[in-house]
Amino acid sequence: MPAYKEKDAKTWYVSVRYEDWTGKKTRKVKRGFATKREAIEWERKFLLKEYASLDMTFDSFLELYKEDLKDRLKLSTWIMKTSVIDQKILPYFKNKRMCDIKTSDVIAWQKEIMAYRDEDGNAYTPTYLKTIHNQLSAIFNHAVRYYELASNPAAKAGNMGKEKTREMLFWTKEEYTSFVEEIMDKPISFYAFEMLYWCGLRMGELLALTPSDFDLKEGIVHITKSYQRIHGQDVITDPKTEKSVRNIKMPDFLVDEIKDYLNALYRS
Question: Are 237 and 228 a contacting pair, CB within 8 Å?
Answer without folding.
Answer: yes
